[in-house]
Amino acid sequence: MNCLEFRRLKLAEPRGLPHDALAHMSECATCRNFAAEINDNEERLAAALDVPVPEGLAERIILRRKTGTPVFAKASPRLWAMAATVVLTFAFGFQQWRDAGSQEYARLAIEHVMHEPESFTTARLADPQLFHTVMQNFGGEMQASLGKVRYMKLCPVPEGTGWHIVFETEQGELATLILIPAKRMTSQSEQATVGGWTALARPGGQGYYAVITSSPDTLDKVDELVRQRVRWRS
Asked: Which pTM value belongs to this model?
């Protein structure tokens, strides 16, 4: 267990750390401080979440800041206060990951997918127009549809605010698209295979993007699909 693995586990399951993570925390002052801050944020969030939370609240608020599009037509002060708490919690997670950068772009993308298996079984923010807005804000001009969007979520990534997107191609193949801002790749592409997953990272938009699939053959097809149907602005 190292500090990066501990932080991933703590962000994923704040109240359910395994024994090896607890053992690491007992020996690492930095991770103890990190865990304490996460616990404080969890308590503040729990106090705020005593009203129903619209799905994708944080994502929609962050998109609103970039596009100026209203998120709520008639929102109560209490709901806005709760929204602010959610966004601050997300922001804390992003900041904690900011120092965990790596040049292994494709491998990091696979590890991110492996830590969110629910992305393949859960429908979340499956809105084509929202996906179009996310891509546009990131610097991707859609020339044609990639397929059916099934899942979108803001996630903590090494470079800050990243988008985790799962879509189904017209041929019925599932693929994950990770959008990573701020970090620029020096190479034209990077490929990795970990735990039965394969990924290809390329520079594009505000930083770089990675395509992840369960087989090399599918990866080649989806990579070609993205290159044909998305034009990236630098």
From this structure: 0.62
